[in-house]
Automatic annotation (TrEMBL):
Database matches in PANTHER family: XAA-PRO AMINOPEPTIDASE 3, XAA-PRO DIPEPTIDASE
Functional note: Splits dipeptides with a prolyl residue in the C-terminal position.
Protein name in the entry: Xaa-Pro dipeptidase
Annotated coiled-coil segments of the chain: none
Organism classification: Bacteria, Pseudomonadati, Pseudomonadota, Gammaproteobacteria, Oceanospirillales
GO cellular component, one term: cytosol
Amino acid sequence: MTESLYRDHLATLQARYEKAMQHYQIDAIVLASGDKSYYFQDDHTVPFHAYSGAQQWLPFSLVAETYIVVQAGKKPRLVWPVRDDFWHAPNPVPAGEWQTEWEISPARKDDKWFSSLPTKCAWLGPQPPAFATKVEGLNAYVDFAKAIKTPFEINAIRLATKRAVKGHRAAKEAFLAGMSELEIHLAFLSASQQTAAQEPYPGIVGINNHAAVLHYEHKDPNRSARPLTLLIDAGASEHGYASDITRTFVRHDDEFSALVDSLDKMEQGLAHQARSGVDYRTLHQDTLTGVAHILNEHKICHLSPEEQMAKGIPQVFFPHGLGHLLGLQVHDVGGFQVDEAGTVRKDDNAPFLRLTRTLEENMVVTIEPGLYFIPMLLEKMQASIPQHGCDLSLIERFKPYGGIRIEDNVVVQDERPINLTRNEFQLDNPLS
Ligand code: GLY
Ligand code: MN
Ligand code: MN
């Protein structure tokens, strides 16, 4: 099953790239995985992540200095690095059915494998050599198509979700047992079977007011005397494809847990709207309106949702975008592109929104609304929004909880979007 998914995936890529070569009148495209890079004045390398455009072609994690040559009507060619090196583990070409679809050329560092390439040959990836033909717009052309995932890619994201969900369950248990952020992160890594360097992005594990720091990457090794909230935003990878999942767990049934329930309900409603033809910018605006309703219902802000929207109150509590494309890159390429020519569309009303496209079937997107009590933004609101209508003493009570974010990964469909994250949480534990 996976083998046929991979074969079809490869055929789709070959067709996309042949169309691009025809469009730009070029005879070959080389995709380079990239080189290792070293920390300044050190002999340790930065964890390697292959250029996603090259990674997309293969069903295992690509190593550095690997090249793919694509030509019309030919099997793709994999130029595989052969190292004469006893310092590191050997690097054999991975075994598997996939090999039947490829021409494989092992090459040593100094081999001139590129001397046989056609003259009009474009290069995608880092460090294009002098012989490469510069093709303005080629990168945007191929990136645009990447938003639509093949069944093989959707399956990879599903498998990445499966592993991450195991981690989230372990993290929840560790939190309820009173563990520190560091211990919770280690529990997440162990259950999702990965090292920190293999995470698709540095996991965010924030207890209490740390949940109000959007990119909180520190892991406090000390246990909290009074843990209230855990916000964990952490994913896993499957040969490069990422899952990107956030959950907010609480320990008490109180006014904050009621807020979590409201946001959770809103999030599920938004995920359900991820259908073909929907402008993602509209979904973001719907989220702001939804946050305004929640603020009003929970008596955090006495203004009506319409008055709140006019004054920019929801943005004080929800200052980021609703989500983004998901794929080989966590914030996947092409989110601002409205066409294959590379025309970019930003949303002036939502400067942090990373996806401004109209949704199409088989795009994979995140849906990640939040509601936070961020001291800096609350102070700004008090200073700059007269008659903000917010109950400051209630807000003081909420500040120690930090905030809430709930993030699912959703496959856009014409009718019923597929919520990979919820599906996996349900499979894992039918009672949840
Ligand atoms: N974890 C990064 C994000 O949610 O976009
Ligand atoms: Mn996330
Ligand atoms: Mn995300």
